[in-house]
């Protein structure tokens, strides 16, 4: 990252669809340096009026479900129809070293070759569930650059999927051909989030088992879905390898978006997401501020020791800490 960043020039490069400019813009919004945050906000403020026109899809699935292969096949299919596809792939990062695999370009080889596709692997770092902190901001950048389809690929089935579902229009769960107790590997919470479910690798010897799995998942969704919404999550089979069923999956994505338009309304749906994100940001900043000074960090360690030795209750210790924290905020009192 250069020492001096010309935000206006960067905005012009993004709006012109220049890939190098897009990469620099995303790097800026991903930066954790305090000096870069005001610049990132300026950048996003200028790009925001040009964003919002894309179809936003979140993709999750158990390890081995073939998420990257699915995106490669589906992305190429969409490009053939005239779309421009951006993939924001969140990679698993080492909690020890912060290293990231960043292997999506090799797993999406065909899609990566297209000049109508943009793939951005982002290390998840230590943030909850592996969702890169700046994924939402990166979405604004690629949309402003003219990409009309944005796919957010998650690390896997876990806690992070709640965050991804809160930033996309349609949340797509990719499942494997399994049956019986093996379906327990997909947690109920993930099934409740799913707007569309596709059982992948439904080809060859797996085709029959995939149909059985789709039937089992359909029964599960009948029990989970809230009938008051008037919509049941569709379950289908597909094969990213042969291309069978991919058109049906995308049709289900489009039908879900149309359902949003006809009920909540897409603008209201996204506005609600942004409000939730605003409070999540506020809560995150408040949590960060709890350890923002050496004094508070030392107090926290002292209180931990007291609670550990049972010389002070957790309730009293928390009240003492919050009183000290509130004392650093002008005009604020902790009750």
UniProtKB/TrEMBL annotation:
Q: Name one GO molecular function term.
A: GTPase activity
GO CC terms of this entry: cytoplasm
Asked whether the keyword Transferase is assigned, the reply is yes
Cite the InterPro entries for this sequence.
GTPase_ArgK, P-loop_NTPase
Listed A to Z, the keywords are:
Transferase
Mind telling me which SUPFAM superfamilies this protein's record contains? P-loop containing nucleoside triphosphate hydrolases (SSF52540)
Superkingdom as given in the UniProt entry: Bacteria
The EC number(s) attached to this protein equal 2.7.-.-
Fetch the Gene3D superfamilies from UniProt. Answer: 1.10.287.130, 1.20.5.170, P-loop containing nucleotide triphosphate hydrolases
Concerning its family, UniProt says:
Belongs to the SIMIBI class G3E GTPase family. ArgK/MeaB subfamily.
* Protein's UniProt name: LAO/AO transport system ATPase
Which organism is this entry from? Propionibacterium acidifaciens F0233
């Amino acid at each position: 990252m250069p020492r001096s960043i010309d935000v206006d020039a960067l905005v012009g490069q993004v709006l012109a669809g220049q890939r190098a400019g897009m990469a620099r813009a995303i790097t800026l919004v991903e930066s954790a340096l305090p000096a870069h945050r005001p610049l990132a906000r300026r950048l996003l403020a200028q790009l925001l009026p040009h964003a919002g026109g894309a179809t936003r899809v979140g993709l999750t699935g158990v390890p081995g479900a073939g998420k990257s292969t699915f995106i490669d096949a589906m992305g190429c299919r969409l490009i053939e129809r005239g779309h421009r596809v951006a993939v924001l792939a969140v990679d698993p990062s080492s909690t020890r070293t912060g290293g990231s695999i960043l292997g999506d370009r090799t797993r999406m080889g065909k899609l990566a070759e297209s000049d109508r596709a943009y793939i951005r692997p982002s290390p998840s770092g230590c943030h909850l569930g592996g969702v890169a902190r700046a994924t939402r901001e990166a979405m604004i950048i690629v949309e402003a650059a003219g990409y009309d389809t944005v796919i957010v690929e998650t690390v896997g089935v876990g806690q992070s999927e709640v965050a991804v579902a809160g930033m996309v229009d349609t949340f797509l769960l990719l499942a494997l051909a399994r049956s019986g107790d093996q379906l327990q590997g997909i947690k109920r919470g993930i099934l409740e989030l799913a707007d569309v479910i596709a059982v992948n690798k439904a080809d060859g010897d797996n085709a029959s088992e995939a149909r059985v799995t789709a039937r089992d998942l359909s029964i599960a969704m009948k029990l989970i879905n809230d009938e008051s919404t008037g919509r049941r999550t569709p379950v289908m089979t597909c094969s990213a390898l042969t291309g069978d069923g991919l058109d049906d999956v995308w049709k289900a994505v489009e039908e879900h978006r149309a359902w949003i338009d006809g009920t909540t309304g897409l603008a209201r749906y996204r506005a609600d997401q942004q409000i939730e994100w605003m409070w999540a940001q506020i809560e995150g900043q408040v949590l960060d501020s709890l350890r923002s000074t050496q004094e508070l960090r030392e107090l926290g360690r002292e209180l931990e020791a007291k609670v550990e030795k049972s010389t002070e209750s957790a309730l009293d210790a928390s009240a003492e800490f919050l009183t000290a924290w509130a004392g650093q905020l002008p005009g604020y009192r902790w009750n």
